[in-house]
Amino acid sequence: MIRRRLSRIRTASADAGGALARRLRRVSGLERREEARAFLDAFAAATGATDAHRSRRWAEMRRGLSRGDYYEHTPEELAFGARLAWRNAGRCIGRLPWDSLEVEDHRADGSPEAIAAQIGRHLDAAYGDGRIRSIISIFPPVRGTVLPAWIESPQASQYACHVGEDGAAMGDRRNAEATRIARSMGWRPAGAPGPFDLLPVFLRDRDDRRIVVPPPPQTREVAIAHPDRPGLAALGLRWYAVPLVTDMILSIGGIDYPCAPFNGHYMCTEIASRNFADVRRYDMLEDVARALGLSPSPGDRLWRDVALTELNRAVLASFRAAGVTMIDHHAASDQFMTFHRREQSQGRRVAADWRWIVPPQASAACQPFHLKMRDFHPVPGFYRNRGEDGLRMMPWYGDRYRRRPEQWADRVLRRWKIWKRMAW
Asked: Chain-centre distance of CA 97, in angstroms?
């Protein structure tokens, strides 16, 4: 009975705020205060702040949280928190340069027009001369019950999926629904529908109204060709150079930033082994095999391994020929192991999700395959929704010395928080 009533109350409060409110974490006032204090301690330790400054800043944060579940981060705190969130991202293999993340503060203007304009500037700055820079643009946060504008599209650049009357799909199958919505709102490809038509960007304003923004003209694309097999170029494959992730929520010290687009650079397997080969994406492995001169056979499926390897070679060679930053999965794995060793030398345990860290190609030949991992979802961090990766986000105390009773208490408290946040 109690669970049913709690569920009805929570559902009603979530539905009242629209799509964004249903994605935000359920965090109590005490939990928000705990996250704020843990973040302040980490920031003070990293910057060498005095005890007097720490006490004064904690008093300011505490007053803000008491008045309206909100306090404002200083520019220095914002930059430190964003970099820390990248360091804590358990699904990212490329965290070695986490402290070099460029942070752009756009909290002063969070209008949809400002967000749309910044997407283009962000793509330009990140691309530069082809050497991709990691940048994050941070817009206004959630202020108590006041929700800001945000970006609904998972990435700033996405390819459409055109579904014919016979059910045949052309393009990125993951975006079939996004393409349907875009068409219903008046979008049409510039020419005849093709497999690589860039979709518009979906924004939501403060009133949760969907706004369609044309595809960013700053999107650069790389044509895919094999260095030794000219038949692959005939498929007309291409992919965009900058993966600008736009739908993840940045959480720093108990404050959520729903609009914080950020980018890194691609690893070849993300495009070749997943985007082009997955049956729920382009599903082109057989076409690629034939273009490479292979004969797909049901009796001998090792042709898949050959096709995937050659497709990775093609993607890697094409990006390098275009002068665009690209890394192979073996180099990325080596970088992750370097990052892992550095974190351990600093007395920090690395949060990592094995399913995301281990590359999909030649997995057992990469060192992370043999590494024991656990993603304990520390904050600051990124999450997509409260039911998936946001449910378990909370401060992590496992890097400091704790007596056994304190460890037991931490485990019990952690399980209680997760139970309380679930939608019963």
From this structure: 16
Specify the residue for token string 């969070």.
110
Nearest alpha carbon to residue 174 among 295, 246, 280: 280
Q: How many Cβ atoms sit within 10 Å of the Cβ of residue 229?
A: 16
Q: What is the DSSP letter of 234?
A: G
SS3 assignment for 254-308: CEEECCCCEECCEEHHHHHHHHCCCCCCCCCHHHHHHHCCCCCCCCCCCHHHHHH
Residue where the block lists tokens 């817009």: 139
pLDDT digits (tens, 9 = 90+) for 245-282: 999 999 999 999 999 999 999 999 999 999 999 999 99
pLDDT at 100: 97
Q: What are the residues whose beta carbons fall under 8 Å from the beta carbon of 104, sequence distance 6 or more?
A: 118, 122, 135, 136, 137, 138
Q: How far is CA 269 from CA 133, 170, 278, in A?
A: 20, 22, 11
Neighbour count for residue 294 (Cβ, 10 Å): 17
* Helices and strands in the chain: count of H runs, count of E runs: 13, 16
The pLDDT assigned to 108 comes to: 96
- Whether the CB-CB separation of 290 and 305 falls below 8 Å is answered with no
For residues 167 and 170, what is the distance between their CA atoms, to the nearest angstrom?
A: 10
pLDDT band at 417 (very low <50, low <70, confident <90, very high): confident
Closest CA to 139 of 206, 66, 211, 47: 206
Mean residue pLDDT of the chain comes to 92
The dihedral of CA 118, 119, 122, 124: what is its sign?
negative
Q: Give 23-90 as a 3 state SS string.
A: HCCCCCHHHHHHHHHHHHHHHHHHHCCCHHHHHHHHHHHHHHHHHHCCCCCCHHHHHHHHHHHHHCCC
Q: Report the Cα–Cα distance between both ends of the chain, in Å, rounded.
A: 11
